[in-house]
Amino acid sequence: MESRWSDREAAEYVDRYATQWGEALALRVYTSRLIGRDPDLVMHGGGNTSLKGTVTTLVGESMDALFIKGSGWDLDAIEPPGLPAVDLGHLRKLRGLPSLSDEEMVNQLRTHLFDAGAPNPSVETLLHAFLPHRFIDHSHADIALVVTNQPAGVAQEMVRDAFGPRWAVVPYIMPGFALAKLAAEVYERDPGVEGLVLLNHGLFTFADDAHTAYELMIAGVDRAERYVRARAAEVRLSVQVARAATVGGLAPADALARLAPVLRSALAEPSGNADQPWRRMVFEYRTSDDLLGTLARSDAAALALEGPLTPDHVIRTKGPHLFLSPDLALGDDARLRDQLTAAVTEYRTRYDAYVEHNRHRARSAVTKLDALPRVVLIPGLGIIAAGRSKSDARIAADIAEHTVSAKALANTIAHYQALGDGDLFDMEYRSLEQAKLGKGKDPALAGQVALVTGAIGAIGYGICKQLIAAGARVIVSDLDPDRTAAAVKE
Question: What predicted TM-score, i.e. pTM, was given to this entire model?
Answer without folding.
Answer: 0.92
